[in-house]
Write a structure and sequence with these properties.
This protein is of the alpha/beta class. The chain contains 36 helices and 35 strands. It folds into six domains: about 200 residues, Ribosomal protein L4/L1 (Ribosomal Protein L4, Chain: A); about 35 residues, no CATH class; about 170 residues, no CATH class; about 200 residues, TIM Barrel; about 100 residues, PK beta-barrel domain-like (M1 Pyruvate Kinase, Domain 3, Beta Barrel); about 120 residues, Pyruvate Kinase, Chain: A, domain 1 (3-Layer(aba) Sandwich). The N terminus is likely disordered.
């Protein structure tokens, strides 16, 4: 490149000169020389070698110790001591063969080539190039000089500066010409040299400041500037490349005196006239345009250049199938499933074992243990008899079974090989071992039931039996029990229901023994077999259903949300609200009564904001919500919202709010203050706030609730004038606007997840929250990293990650962020502070549509019912805003300040409920009247089969007018796909996991239940119908559609 040419250069007049600035000195030709960094670096490297001094081998090398001892215990040598006794040898250092003064002996030889010769013309050309670079402001600033206040390059001052001799006068000159900042920067950079160089007369290092070039020999200017650190002084006739380009870098800041500037022509010559002293002619630039990139990309060059070969030959890497899992799965696809099933089976086995051990380790008090032991011994004496079975009457009395139910029992015992035994007066079911030969069908299926005999109520069982079996004894149903007759002994087993009958001729799974025909005696005696004796009466409050082994087991009751259950019982299917509601818990709603009122009013998710309060307060709130779910039967999920790395205010010194009036002067400071804060002073959490902000910037508080203008900067304090009055709340976010656009560099310097956020995330994992909302997400990598971290720390718990879209960076990477996260929150308050207000509605609609397309739940948040913080009824515009969010198809709506610190949180929740219900009903009627299906949304899911099944189920539900859709899902995926299709009827989602059930609380139109179910769809439906009918949530004759992610099919049926 070539320095820009100018015909004349002005001379800066100094203070005290009679003349003013003049512009009559022509620019010397040396400033038009080509600027060649390669010349400069090469010559500078060689000249630097010439500064070295050779040193030779010491005569005493290898004949002295690294440290001498002055007696025992005096000095310490750096080499091992000489062994030996006696005072004269104690502690004496040994001679080191390779040691000389603590260093290795024999340094670089003196005959080494220490210096380098440099071609004189090349050296002069490099100096001319360095001189030309001093006239280019871009190169001077790129080198680090502070020259923002310098009026012109090259900078020439009058010759009156050569007569000064005081350092104070030199300071004045630098300040007058705008070079003081660069000199101060060089002064502040003085420091101690690192390493051992500081011990060899090179203790300090500092940056290079301005170079003062004078023209008159013997000027006093040398004395004036020599005491300024980093400022060098040189004569124009003795300029050196080491001074003009220190370190080989072009662009040093040079200040010329008028006489020195005029001598440049005769010292370095021109392009036509050689220099007077050496006869050197300046090198002329070879090219008028030195833009190499433009030359290469020109049509003249590109037309003859060989085109780029874009063909890439990739070599396929062979993978070892013995080590690489992907290669193994290609050969054996079932291996992954087998390993997964083995892992799950092992985990189930370990869990069952731990639960069994935990139940056995229940400790009783000594008094209770003594009572249990005594009662057990007494009961054992009445239960266990000798080999002749003489105490069966006592056992039957304890069971409360009459003798009429055991007709023919003696024959059964004899048939199985037990002779000379009295028949036990208990109901029995005779089953044979799998290893025994098969007998007659009627003999193998003999069963009796206490239901057929109508027995009297049994006496209460012993206390230790109640504690071990945890069975609720009732007078309406006899106790389940079992016994085994084996080797002449009778042992009692745990209570369990009986197996079903395998005889297709039996009308009922079990039947009374006296109703069955007795088989004829066998022709030959059989081997003695153990008998499994069971009573066959259903347990109270439990539903019996067959498991895969064919044995009836007891299923626990279904878990449903109490508020949803009451709504279904009273108003039916069509009155259920599809849009979910999220409420922020704050000081106004953190009490047990307030939380219960919100849960009863329809709160699906409780949100805790880590921006406010401490972790102990949030722990109490989370545990209060969990306790409310357990005690009252609700299913409220918990969402934790991180603070994020945003610029925000402090806590206002403990005050709940502050009012900023028009024209008031407020101070925003990064200094820490003790409470209370000074009047009209706000602390800011960003340490670089005072450095980055500029006078004239606009400062928006909490998305524009108040507006300030920066008028002055005073160190760590920034004075601002209030231009738009408003209410200032603790920890409100701050946004900077400059020239009509938001300043993104402020938040871009901060990480997405701060150190405090990581501690809060660990707290949320420990407390078992269901959702973690991440603030100010900038890219999808943040979400992926956080999900990996949660998976490693949560030990199997299923915590969903919600990404909050509230910045320009989030909008730039919107689709990637949605795909990586488990849900999206549209934080319109912070978003409105970074984008124009008129763009917020369109952005909201775009996010909602894209989330539905990618099957991710979306929450519309911020300022939905802002006026209800102070007033009991919302504005009509707020109701219209809520209606538009519901009409767009948002999965959930969120209350922030309305429920956290508002005066009417329950009324605000009721408004959201009523508006959502009305808009959802109107939307369905409008679509039905226009004969239009719900909006079809395309996607690119890998699970096409499940997607098509859900689409078909939703269309069938709308066309047939079914009352509900039942979906049995273990992962929640199929329920989520159904929610995405937006059917007219509610969707009952049954899952076996409590965490999956709470996650489904955020999906549109889903009513989640926790229920244990098997792979048998018919059994699941019959049991589910029975449970829901018992609780009044469905009625006989209701039309439902059933599907599951285990069997990819759709069933349409009426509730029996």
């Amino acid at each position: 490149m070539v320095a820009s040419s100018r015909p004349l250069v002005s001379v800066k007049a100094l203070e005290g000169d009679m003349a003013t600035d003049s512009a009559g000195i022509p620019l010397p030709a040396v400033f038009q020389a080509p600027i060649r960094p390669d010349w400069t670096r090469f010559v500078h490297k060689l000249l630097s070698c010439n500064k070295r001094q050779p040193y030779a081998v010491s005569r005493r090398a290898g004949h002295q110790t690294s440290a001498e001892s002055w007696g025992t215990g005096r000095a310490v040598s750096r080499i091992p001591r000489v062994p030996g006794g006696g005072t004269h040898r104690a502690g004496q250092g040994a001679f080191g063969n390779m040691c000389r003064g603590g260093r290795m002996f024999a340094p670089t030889k003196i005959w080494r080539k220490w210096h380098r010769r440099v071609n004189i013309n090349l050296r002069r050309a490099a100096v001319a190039s360095a001189l030309a670079a001093t006239a280019v402001p871009a190169l001077v600033m790129a080198r680090g000089h502070r020259v923002e206040s310098v009026p012109e390059f090259p900078l020439v001052i009058s010759d009156s500066a050569e007569s000064i001799e005081k350092t104070s006068q030199a300071h004045k000159i630098l300040k007058q010409i705008g070079a003081e900042p660069d000199a101060e920067k060089a002064k502040d950079s003085v420091g101690i040299r690192p390493g051992k160089g500081k011990m060899r007369n090179r203790r300090y290092i500092n940056r290079k400041g301005p170079l003062i070039v004078y023209g008159t020999e013997g000027s006093k200017i040398v004395k004036a500037f020599r005491n300024l650190p980093g400022v060098d002084v040189a004569n124009v006739e003795r300029l050196n490349l080491l001074d003009l380009a220190p370190g080989g870098h072009l662009g040093r800041f040079v200040i010329w005196t008028e006489s020195a500037f005029k001598k440049l022509e005769e010292v370095y010559g021109t392009f036509e006239t050689p220099s007077l002293k050496k006869g050197f002619i300046l090198p002329r630039p070879k090219m008028a345009n030195a833009d190499l990139g433009r030359i290469i990309n020109s049509d003249e060059v590109q037309s003859v250049v060989k085109p780029l070969n874009k063909e890439v030959k990739r070599r396929e890497k062979r993978k070892n199938p013995l080590k690489n899992m992907a290669a193994v799965l290609k050969l054996n696809p079932y291996l992954g499933t087998a390993r997964k099933m083995a892992t799950l089976a092992e985990a189930a086995r370990v869990k069952a074992r731990n639960e069994k051990l935990a139940s056995k380790r229940t400790k009783l008090s000594p008094e209770e243990a003594a009572k249990v032991k005594a009662a057990g011994k007494a009961w054992y004496k009445t239960m266990i008899s000798d080999s002749d079975y003489t105490e069966f009457e006592n056992f039957s009395k304890w069971l409360g079974v009459t003798h009429s139910t055991v007709v023919g029992t003696e024959h059964v015992l004899r048939t199985c090989g037990i002779v000379n035994a009295k028949p036990p007066a208990i109901p029995i079911v005779c089953t044979t071992s799998p290893l025994t030969p098969r007998h007659s069908p009627s003999a193998a299926c003999l069963a009796t039931s206490a239901r057929g005999a109508n027995p009297p109520p049994p006496p209460p069982s012993p206390p230790h039996i109640k504690k071990r079996t945890r069975h609720r004894a009732s007078h309406s149903a006899p106790l389940h029990c079992s016994a085994v007759i084996s080797h002449g002994r009778l042992r009692r087993r745990r209570a369990h229901p009986p197996p079903p009958s395998r005889n297709p001729q039996l009308p009922h799974p079990v039947a009374p023994l006296h109703h069955l025909p007795l088989p004829p005696p066998p022709a030959r005696p059989h081997r003695r077999l153990p008998l499994r004796l069971r009573s066959v009466s259903p347990a109270a409050d439990l539903t019996a259903f067959p498991n895969p082994n064919g044995i009836l087991t007891a299923d626990p009751a279904i878990d449903a949300d109490a508020a949803t259950e009451a709504e279904l019982r009273e108003n039916g299917f069509r009155s259920t609200r599809r849009t979910k509601l999220v409420c922020t818990v704050g000081p106004a709603t953190c009490g047990p009564a307030e939380l219960e009122a919100l849960a009863a009013g329809g709160m699906d998710v409780a949100r805790v904001n880590m921006c406010h309060g401490d972790r102990e307060w949030h722990r109490r709130v989370i545990r209060a919500v969990r306790g409310l779910n357990e005690d009252k039967g609700f299913a409220v999920a918990v969402m934790m919202d991180t603070e994020g790395s945003e610029i925000h205010m402090g806590d206002l010194g403990g005050a709940s709010s502050a009012k900023a009036e028009d024209g008031e002067i407020w101070t925003f400071s990064v200094r820490p203050f003790e409470s209370p804060l000074p009047e009209r002073t706000i602390n800011v959490n960003y340490e670089g706030f005072n450095e980055d902000v500029r006078v004239g910037d606009e400062l928006l508080v909490d998305g524009g609730m108040a507006r300030f203008e920066v008028i002055e900067k005073l160190g760590p304090d920034v004075k601002c004038r209030c231009t738009d009055p408003g209410l200032l709340l603790p920890r409100a976010n701050l946004t900077f606007w400059r020239d009509g656009s938001v300043v993104r560099a402020k938040n871009a310097m901060l990480p997405t997840i701060s150190s405090k956020d990581w501690l809060d995330i660990d707290f949320g994992i420990a407390e078992g929250v269901d959702f973690i909302a991440v603030s100010f997400v900038k890219s999808a990598e943040v979400i992926k990293h956080l999900k990996s971290y949660i998976a490693a720390r949560s030990r199997g718990s299923d915590i969903a990650v919600i990404a909050k879209v509230e910045s320009i960076d989030s909008l730039t990477n919107l689709e990637e962020i949605i795909q990586a996260s488990d849900g999206i929150m549209v934080a319109r308050g912070d978003m409105g502070a970074q984008v124009p207000l008129e763009q917020v509605p369109a952005i909201q609609q775009k996010i909602v549509k894209l989330c539905r397309q990618l099957n991710k739940p979306v929450i519309v948040a911020s300022q939905l019912l802002e006026s209800m913080i102070e007033y009991p009824i919302p504005t009509r515009a707020e109701v219209a805003d809520v209606s538009e969010a519901v009409r767009q198809g948002a999965d959930a709506l969120m209350l922030s300040g309305e429920s956290a610190m508002g005066r009417y949180p329950e009324k605000a929740l009721n408004v959201l409920t009523s508006v959502s219900l009305r808009i959802e009903k109107w939307w369905r009627e409008e679509k039905r009247r226009e004969a239009l299906d719900l909006q079809n949304v395309s996607s690119s899911f890998s699970d096409k089969v499940s997607e098509e099944i859900c689409n078909s189920a939703a269309k069938m539900a709308n066309s047939l007018g079914v009352d509900a859709v039942f979906v049995f899902t273990k992962t929640g995926h199929m329920a989520s796909l159904l929610s995405r299709c937006r059917p007219d009827c509610p969707v009952f989602a049954f899952t076996t996991s409590t965490s999956i059930r709470r996650r489904l609380n955020l999906q549109w139109g889903l009513i989640p239940f926790r229920l244990s179910f098997s792979d048998d769809m018919d059994s699941n439906l019959n049991r589910t119908f029975s449970l829901l009918k018992t609780r009044g949530m469905i009625r006989s004759g209701d039309l439902v559609i059933a599907l599951s992610d285990m069997l990819q099919s759709i069933q349409v049926m009426n509730v029996p």
